[in-house]
Design a protein that fits this description.
By secondary structure, this protein is an alpha+beta fold. The protein is about 35% helix and about 20% strand. The protein contains eight helices and eight strands; from the N terminus they run E-H-H-H-H-E-E-E-E-E-H-H-H-E-E-H. Strands 1-5-4 form a three-stranded antiparallel β-sheet, with helices on one face. It has a three-stranded antiparallel β-sheet with strand order 6-8-7, covered by helices on one side. Strands 2-3 form a two-stranded antiparallel ribbon. The radius of gyration is 18 Å and the shape is globular. About 35% of the residues are buried.
């Protein structure tokens, strides 16, 4: 699910249920003195809760959003549900998975990366070789895409920037990838995708499919498709 923080500004300012919606984040919201930072913070948390609530077919006030070391959000008491949040400039995006780990990352599509300076820190030798035949601008574009995919993958693993990007090859055969438990990932276990959203951002998703889970007693939704986004709209009234 992706949106802009401006689209959620009115809810952040006027929603009478803001306190129960934010839950444990209410005090942090109140302590943030900078209005822009405060509004971006509350918008990202509302989007996260409404997205998860639509996926789980529940009320957003019923969800308790908490954070692991490093800031990764999770839903307290719902260990089988994985959540990832990213934001850059106007964009806020949330990924929710009932079937395994998920990580998302976004960057402005027009961001320029110094290929000579950064490529060795982001790409493996094999990835560098595949980009060597591209034009200078195409190499920068591909490097930015690779950066967002590896950021998303690292978030899915819960590693953040601790993951060695230049040691993780995201080739078609999944060589070099690790599953969340640290074992070599099986072919097809990981799926990566990059999308251009709002016309000006690259949004990448890394997802590990651990199979459907029905142990929590909540309704299973096979995909987060148009029906899912409609669910968010319905929750918003």
């Amino acid at each position: 699910m992706h949106t802009t923080w401006g689209e959620w500004l009115s809810a952040a300012l006027t929603d009478p249920a803001l306190c129960p919606l934010l839950g444990r984040d209410w005090q942090r919201y109140r302590r943030t003195s900078d209005p822009a930072v405060r509004h971006r913070f509350v918008a990202s948390r509302l989007v996260t809760k409404y997205t998860a609530a639509a996926a789980l077919d529940t009320d957003p006030t019923e969800l308790d959003l908490a954070y692991k070391i490093g800031g990764r959000p999770y839903l307290r008491g719902l260990d089988r549900i994985d959540v990832s949040l990213t934001h850059t400039e106007e964009l806020i995006a949330v990924g929710v998975s009932r079937n395994g780990r998920i990580g998302i990352d976004a960057e402005p599509a027009g961001r320029r990366l110094d290929f000579e300076l950064l490529s060795g820190h982001i790409a493996t030798p094999a990835e560098l070789h595949s980009m060597s035949v591209l034009s200078e601008r195409a190499r920068e574009t591909e490097l930015l895409k690779l950066w967002t995919v590896k950021e998303a993958y690292s978030k899915a693993l819960g590693q953040g920037l601790r993951l060695g990007f230049s040691e993780s090859d995201l080739g078609a055969d999944c060589s070099g990838l690790l599953a969340p438990d640290g074992t070599p990932a099986a072919r097809g276990a990981w799926a990566f995708s990059t999308h251009r959203v709002l016309g000006r951002y690259l949004l990448s998703v890394a997802r590990h499919d651990g199979g459907p889970d029905v142990s929590r007693g909540t309704a299973v939704r096979p995909t987060l498709d148009g029906g899912f986004t409609g669910g968010v709209a319905e929750l918003l009234g």
